[in-house]
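Module 6 notes. Inverse folding takes a fixed backbone as the condition and produces residue identities as the prediction. Think of it as a translation problem where the source language is geometry and the target language is the twenty amino acids. Below is one complete input and output pair. Work through it position by position during the lab.
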């Protein structure tokens, strides 16, 4: 079995990061954001994520907010998820997702390269990763990663929009990516 290469900090070149966007409150979304789609991710019977997708000039924004009560202290809490991608990311994801299907000889061990793919879309570095545990409870899926943008609020990690296989293939997210790519190519967003 091959061992991974030893990390050499002297040759490490990080992915250049884009300027960070603020996390917007739902009452104050920018007027330039045009809602182009919405989709519901039924993760579990008691966990539903209602995603709003916006187009802003050159960017595709995945946005979700939910006001709930903190189960530990009983106080109100607001959850916000916001991910920014170049608008071409929808087409890039659709074009590159097939790399994960029927890859190689099934009798040979899969290399780590078979679980992720990186490339550029516009001037940002994107990635797709095959996940064993996409949304908890050992549910497989995929992530669309923007390695050029810091996550909110964890600025150490890149932005990563995670999708279970069920959400992607059965609940319509892949079809939505295809629709956004088609509308963008036609100039109808």
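Target side of the pair, the amino acids:
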């Amino acid at each position: 079995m091959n061992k991974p290469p030893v990390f050499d900090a002297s040759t490490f070149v990080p992915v250049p990061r884009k300027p960070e966007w603020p996390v917007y409150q739902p009452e104050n979304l920018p007027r330039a954001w045009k809602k182009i789609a919405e989709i519901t991710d039924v993760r579990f019977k008691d966990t539903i994520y209602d995603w709003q997708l916006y187009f802003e000039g050159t960017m595709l924004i995945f946005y979700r907010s939910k006001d709930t009560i903190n189960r530990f202290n009983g106080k109100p809490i607001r959850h916000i998820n916001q991910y920014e991608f170049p608008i071409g990311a929808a087409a890039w994801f659709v074009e590159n997702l097939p790399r994960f299907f029927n890859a190689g000889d099934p009798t040979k061990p899969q290399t780590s390269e078979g679980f992720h793919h990186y490339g550029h879309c516009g001037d940002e570095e994107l990635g797709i990763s095959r996940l064993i545990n996409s949304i908890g409870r050992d549910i497989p899926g995929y992530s669309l990663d923007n390695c050029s943008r810091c996550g909110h609020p964890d600025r150490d990690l890149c932005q990563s929009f995670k999708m279970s296989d069920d959400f992607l293939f059965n609940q319509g997210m892949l079809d939505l990516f295809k629709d956004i790519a088609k509308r963008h190519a036609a100039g109808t967003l």
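Reference fact for the lab report: Residues 173-186 form the longest helix (14 residues).
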